[in-house]
Amino acid sequence: MREELYRPLGQTLAPVAGTRRRARGPWLGGACLVALVAAGSVATALMQPGFAPPPVAPIAPSEVVAQKVAEPAERQPNVLRMEPGGGFTIADADGRRPLVDDGNPLTGSIRVLEPGSLRQPSAFAHLPEQALLEQTDFGPLPVRGTDGRRPLDVYAGDWSGTGGTRIAIVVGGLGVSQSGSMRAVEELPAGVTLAFAAEGNSLDRWLQAGRRGGHEVLLQAPMEPFGYPNVSAGPHTLKVADAAAGRLDDLHWSMGRITNYVGVMNYMGARLNADPAALQPFLGEMSKRGLLYLDDGTSPRSEARDVALANGTPFAAADLVIDADREPEAIARQLDVLERIARAKGTAIGTASAFDASIDGIRDWVAAAAERGIEIVPVSALAFDPEARS
């Protein structure tokens, strides 16, 4: 009877001989049954969505070939520049322009720049950023880059970024006197801002020297004064009637004379600064091109601050003129007044021209002021900037 239990149905087989052979039969059958159940369970599990293995994408032959191309031994690390509006730009080693046709942004080394730091590298400070220039009949004019950078951001002078008493000193008239321009560039500390007269000579030469020396730069544009035309700022003076009508050719002529500047400063221009209808298009042009405007502080009737705030234009105004009297003692007194203003309100801006007495007085005073805990900063550091990002 026991032997019949191990016979396949419908078949007559010889009896199984021996106890050992009969005992192996049930063990083998049970093992097979367990194996079949386990295999079925695994297959069922693998068919579930959560357990399905990820599909393997085929590799195109061109990709295989590209992986075999060796990187050049001297390749410089790329730069990953975080953009203010989100995202990033892969740029070349000096961070000055986006790379083109870089198939894989993760190849090579990546150096992450400080977010929001768009300042031009000091090694290239004397060269204009091509992405921030618009070629016109008046020459290259500053313009916002397609990536959102402004000349104000890129050409801004360096400073500590800390609090404390801060003073900006702007020395203008560079390009008018060759000896004065040379002394200003060579002798004034890097924190002093240099303003170049649009009607001056050898401007590109002095601009490059100043930028190599670490100076921030402004353009000094002639604007209509009271008493025009008997009192004139030059043949390319921006007149009130033209500015109010949006005719800015004279301004554009001045702006095309140099590059690498953070903004425009008035030369004369008391009447234009007092006329909101003329200031509106002018300051709108500054804002559109990513520049600041510095009012030299010579006109008590200026409306530039209010119009700049309404236009969202980066703006600064000088607190006093340092060298209205060119006597060394008078210049020293004005610098002391400037320091008292800065200690009272935290910051102050003074303007001067590139006269010998002014350069001597400012150079010596700056050296002594540093020992009293005063930092000389570029004028952009003290400008009100509605687009400033922390």
TrEMBL record:
InterPro entries: Divergent_DAC, Glyco_hydro/deAcase_b/a-brl
SUPFAM superfamilies (UniProt xref): Glycoside hydrolase/deacetylase (SSF88713)
Key words, A-Z: Membrane, Transmembrane, Transmembrane helix
Gene3D superfamilies to which the protein is assigned, alphabetical: Glycoside hydrolase/deacetylase
Membrane spanning residue stretches: 27-47
Residues making up the signal peptide according to the UniProt record: none
An example Gene Ontology biological process: carbohydrate metabolic process
Annotated segments matching region Disordered: 79-103
rRNA-binding in keyword set: no
Domain of life: Bacteria
Name of this protein: Divergent polysaccharide deacetylase family protein
Organism name: Aureimonas flava
